[in-house]
Design a protein that fits this description.
By secondary structure, this protein is an alpha/beta fold. The chain has eight helices and four strands; from the N terminus they run αβαααβααββαα. Strands 1, 2, 3 and 4 form a four-stranded mixed sheet that branches.
């Protein structure tokens, strides 16, 4: 799994598999997502007990851990905190039931969308490993039989797909400037209005109402 530093790796949910006997090329596509803060957006963060950096995965893991500790009095070995790790029997009977209820309590966990986050998207391609010629090289240099390499070794090449960072920014759909521009455009298109025209209309009305008094 590819993830930013400080993020909780949910390998079981978001990871990808690499098989032995293959050469896998993993290109990384990096995207930086920026969300709007309230009142125009709903992004934010909350203080976490077990993690220094906020993310939705960290928040959800903390929520699941608290539910597990409350239900079973212990935690699974991969969960954060200094709580006692469940033994095999408790983890099997109580832990499995508690984790099965996570989907039902996920809505009660207040984990807002972060205002800024990096996403590493992998682009995978693979080929057979090893080839006949490279198998001979491994046998000569490392004294590894070809059959052993096919059943126990995988080769990974990890690189950036392109030397650029994709930016995705959430913006206000309609702001004050847009409203003024639309009003001005509508007046100019449908009414032929302008500042000078409005002043002339006010001048005519004022003279019509108060002209006799001036005379």
């Amino acid at each position: 799994m590819l993830y930013p530093q400080g993020e909780v790796p949910l390998v079981g949910d978001l990871g990808f598999a690499v098989s032995v006997g293959q050469e896998v090329r993993i290109g990384i596509d990096v995207t930086n997502i920026t969300n709007l803060t309230p009142p125009h957006g709903s992004c934010g963060k909350r203080a976490l007990k077990y993690y220094d950096k906020y993310s939705r995965n960290s928040c959800r893991m903390e929520c699941v851990t608290d539910f597990m500790v409350e239900s079973c009095g212990c935690k699974m070995f991969y969960m954060p905190g200094n709580v006692t790790i469940c033994d095999i029997e408790t983890a099997y009977y109580c832990g499995r039931a508690a984790l099965a209820m996570v989907t039902n309590i996920s809505d009660t966990c207040e984990c807002p969308v972060p205002c800024s986050q990096l996403i590493y998207k992998p682009i995978l391609s693979n080929a057979k490993f090893t080839s006949d010629i490279y198998g001979i090289y491994l046998e000569d240099i490392y004294k590894l039989p070809r059959v052993y390499c096919d059943k126990n070794i995988a080769k990974l090449d990890i690189f950036f797909q392109e030397l650029a960072l994709h930016e995705v920014q959430e913006e206000k759909a309609y702001g004050i400037l847009g409203l003024l521009c639309d009003l001005g455009g509508s007046l100019g298109l449908w009414l032929g209005g302008s500042i000078l025209t409005v002043i002339e209309i006010l001048d005519i009305c004022f003279k019509g109402c108060c002209g006799s008094a001036w005379r």
